[in-house]
TrEMBL record, chain A:
GO CC term, one of those recorded: mitochondrial inner membrane
Annotated region (Disordered), positions in chain: 17-76
Sequence ranges of Low complexity compositional bias: 47-58
Protein name according to UniProt: Ubiquinone biosynthesis protein
Listed pathway(s): Cofactor biosynthesis; ubiquinone biosynthesis
GO BP terms, alphabetized: ubiquinone biosynthetic process
Top-level taxon: Eukaryota
Classification via InterPro entries: COQ9_C, COQ9_HTH, Ubiq_biosynth_COQ9
Organism encoding this protein: Tinamus guttatus (White-throated tinamou)
Pfam families xref list: COQ9, COQ9_N
Ranges of compositional bias, category Basic and acidic residues: 22-31
UniProtKB/TrEMBL annotation, chain B:
Organism: Tinamus guttatus (White-throated tinamou)
Gene Ontology terms describing biological process: determination of adult lifespan; regulation of gene expression; regulation of reactive oxygen species metabolic process; ubiquinone biosynthetic process
Keyword Membrane tagged: yes
UniProt-listed InterPro entries: Ferritin-like_SF (IPR009078), Ubq_synth_Coq7 (IPR011566)
Keywords for the protein's UniProt record, in alphabetical order: Iron, Membrane, Metal-binding, Monooxygenase, Oxidoreductase, Ubiquinone, Ubiquinone biosynthesis
A GO CC term assigned to this protein in UniProt: mitochondrial inner membrane
HAMAP family: COQ7 (MF_01658)
Protein's name according to its UniProt entry: Ubiquinone biosynthesis protein COQ7
SUPFAM superfamilies: Ferritin-like (SSF47240)
Pathway listed: Cofactor biosynthesis; ubiquinone biosynthesis
Stored Pfam families: COQ7
Signal peptide (from-to): none
GO molecular function, one term: metal ion binding
Length: 296, 181
């Protein structure tokens, strides 16, 4: 079936898409020199699935068109390539080579890697995003089971530990190359995206843990959990114990520390409040004794 | 998770809930400050009544905040103190001062809610029906407080117009900041 790319900028995507079709085995088409091929109805909604365009069709009306099963947007194609590329990460690292290999398994030309940056950024971000989605689905499932009464509700401590462990375990197949991924995520031009992915993952975990804070606690909890995640991740990439048991023990201790600190803070607060009440009582007593409280 | 957002504009809803939550929180603290000074005076029960309504408002926005998964403004501790100081300070000017503060704040809040209602109506009144209902109800409550303040001689407060302008400027700044941070 035809793989059609809905065109939108950047220019190199146009050329890459054209190159894909040129070299691809499945499609013996004339090379698309430019978009000056005979125009079909330029209305996306009139598009018939059976029509095979001679070249990439520029779309000036945006992505609003209907997508039949044969029709794939560029974004979907990119996702498929990146997903396929993950298989080659252990060998080639997070790089254009892995993307090229992934493209080849889909029957596309290695030149498809030209759609992406050279430094493997999109591959790492795609992977992280995929892991986060998987985690959300996992937590959603678990929540449903608890609501149906089929599983016990976990303590917050246990919940956080399990959620973080589940998320970190997704790194295991790529653990050798994970330090490279971390450094890619820290590149300045990736920081907005990687930060966004990190914060939404942590927010998701707290949401499913049942966090209902509407004050500064909202921030403290997320900051603490982010810290736990990041430090555990660093421990994990250096961990050589069987099935990363050292990492999980580290995680357990960190979460326990955080919960302890929270409980201690609560105790201090209530002790403080009790103390203040005591002092107020003492002050009122003194005022009474000295006659200051009498109305005159 | 959270309330089904469908195609609602999450950023818009987030901003609205964040600033409204901050506003009700601040209003709570203002009345708390007023009560601390005038609690045992003749006007105490009246202020307490208005305060109770604000507590209900805050409770509602706490619920909405969790349901829509909105983050609260980082400035909450500041509104905590500033609100209390404003309430207590205006109450130290006497009952009329407290009423003047109430009039100024409630007028600002009502205008603010009206703006939000307009925005949501322009976006899609059906999609945002629940939120619109809540905001309309609260706007009516705030207008009621405003009128109570006027009935109780707010305008005779010392330096009424100066006080009112200053407070409303502060409210504008608070609203601007809380929407964003």
């Amino acid at each position: 079936s035809a793989v059609r790319c809905q065109l939108c900028p950047p220019q190199r995507a146009l050329q890459a898409s054209a190159a894909l079709r040129r070299v691809s085995d499945e499609h013996k088409k004339e090379p698309a020199a430019s978009s000056s091929q005979h125009q079909f109805d330029s209305h996306p909604t009139d598009q018939q699935p059976e029509q095979e365009p001679q070249g990439p069709r520029p779309s000036y009306t945006g992505q609003g068109g209907q997508e039949s099963e044969d029709y794939e947007s560029e974004e979907q194609l990119q996702h498929r390539i990146l997903t396929a590329a993950l298989e080659f990460v252990p060998e080639h690292g997070w790089s254009a080579e892995a993307i090229a290999e992934g493209a080849k398994t889909l029957g596309l030309s290695a030149a498809a890697a030209g759609m992406f940056h050279n430094d493997g950024s999109e591959l790492v971000l795609h992977f992280v995003s995929q892991c986060n989605t998987e985690l959300s689905e996992l937590l959603e499932q678990e929540q449903k089971l608890v609501q149906l009464g089929e599983t016990e509700k976990k303590t917050t401590e246990q919940f956080l530990r399990d959620a973080l462990e589940a998320r970190l375990r997704m790194l295991i197949p790529y653990i050798e190359k994970w330090p490279q991924a971390i450094s890619i995520l820290l590149l300045p031009h990736n920081i907005p995206s990687s930060l966004n992915l990190l914060t939404s993952m942590i927010d998701d975990i707290w949401h499913y843990a049942g966090d209902q804070s509407t004050d500064l606690n909202w921030y403290t909890r997320r900051a603490v959990l982010t810290g736990i995640y990041n430090t555990t991740e660093l421990v994990m990439i250096q961990d050589t114990s069987p099935d990363f048991e050292d990492t999980w023990r580290f995680l357990e201790n960190r979460v326990a520390d955080a919960v302890n600190m929270h409980n201690t803070a609560k105790q201090i607060k209530s002790t403080g409040e009790a103390l203040v009440q005591g002092l107020m009582g003492a002050a009122v007593t003194v005022k009474n004794l000295s006659g200051l409280n009498q109305r005159r | 998770g959270g309330v089904s957002a469908g195609a609602t504009n999450a950023a818009l809803v987030g901003r609205i809930i964040r600033v409204d939550h901050a506003g009700e929180y601040g209003a709570n603290r203002i009345y708390a400050g007023q009560m601390a000074v005038l609690g045992r005076s003749a006007v105490g029960p009246l202020i307490q009544q208005m305060w109770n309504q604000e507590k209900e408002h805050l409770k509602k926005f706490n619920e909405l905040m969790v349901a829509y998964r909105v983050r609260p403004t980082v400035l909450l501790p500041i509104w905590n103190v500033a609100g209390f100081v404003l309430g207590a300070g205006s109450a130290l000017l006497g009952k009329k001062g407290a009423m003047a503060c109430t009039v100024a704040v409630e007028e600002s809040i009502s205008n603010h809610y009206n703006n939000q209602i307009r925005t949501l109506m322009e976006e899609d009144p059906e999609k945002y029906r629940e939120l619109l209902q809540v905001i309309k109800q609260f706007r009516d409550d705030e207008l009621e407080h405003h009128d109570i303040g006027l009935e109780h001689n707010a305008e005779s407060a010392p330096a009424y117009s100066v006080l009112k302008t200053a407070i409303q400027l502060g409210c504008k700044a608070a609203i601007f900041l809380s929407e964003r941070i």
